[in-house]
Amino acid sequence: MGALIRAVAGLGYSKDDITMVTGIGCSARTNAIADFNTFQTTHGRALSFATGYKMVMPGQKVIVVTGDGDGAGIGGNHLLHTARRNIDITTILINNSIYGMTGGQHSPMTPVQARATSAPFGNIEEPVDVCKLVEAAGATYVARGTVYHHTLTERLIKDALQHPGFSFVEVISQCPVGYGRRNNMGSTVDMLYWQRDNSVNVKAAANMKPEEIGGKFLIGELARRTDREEFCQRYSKMVSSLGQGGK
User: Is residue 11 a contact partner of residue 158, using CB atoms and an 8 Å limit?
Assistant: First the structure.
């Protein structure tokens, strides 16, 4: 939350220029803290509400804050199609590896063998790499940060906010009660150190051998492309064409 607020302030946006849309879950509480135009919507549907809002308010900077359960689980289909459209919405997906607020069930991003209320003997499903997923679907800016690397995460959010098109930032976070306690990960501070010790910056990884990276996850800017037109611009051109008698 701090990285997002600092990114918005650092870019000089007026708070009235920002609209924040959330779904349901711990991540959704952000709209009760931030003094922007805010909407809390139904579970998993933040991106569909945000898409409609952006279409009628194209001048607004629309930010969706969601979680791994809300955004990649229940809202996974909306995530794919919003990325496919390349509409100018910045999505920040806070990944704490669990449905934290709604009971501690395992999410699509819960690691193999991790325990949850719905996986008391350990999760047996492979987790989704949501960054690869949205990139394959057509997102034109994709990045990953962590709560520990807050300076990097702030910069990534700044870049995402300035990117014309669908931009996506996954932020690895911690749920010390619902996930950490159940998986013996220690205190909240211990979980922050886990993020530090299990991540590799994508720039450093470029000069490392696969065995050196091991099972660690990459952080930093993972994908950026400029060859796709933004959806609202494409829609506006179509409307103008029809008004001039085009087909």
Answer: yes
Q: How many CB atoms lie within 10 A of CB 112?
A: 11
Say what the pTM is.
0.95
Are 109 and 128 in contact, with CB atoms under 8 Å apart?
A: yes
Q: Is 240 exposed, middle or buried (0-12, 13-18, 19+ CB in 10 A)?
A: exposed
Q: pLDDT tens for residues 158-211?
A: 999 999 999 999 999 999 999 999 999 999 999 999 999 999 999 999 999 988
Specify burial of residue 30 (Cβ count, 10 A radius: 0-12, 13-18, 19+).
buried
**How far, CA to CA in Å, does 143 sit from each of 88, 110, 135?**
16, 19, 10
Taking the C-alpha atoms of residue 30 and residue 42, their distance in angstroms, rounded to an integer, is 15
Q: 3-state DSSP call for residue 199?
A: strand
Of 32, 28, 112, 34, whose CA–CA distance to 69 is shortest?
A: 28
Q: What is the 8-class DSSP label of residue 164? A: S
Task: For residue 146, list its beta bridge partners.
Answer: 172
Question: Structure tokens of 127?
Answer: 């987790």
Q: Report how far residue 90's alpha carbon sits from residue 70's, in angstroms, rounded to the nearest whole number.
A: 16
- Helix/strand/coil for 48: helix
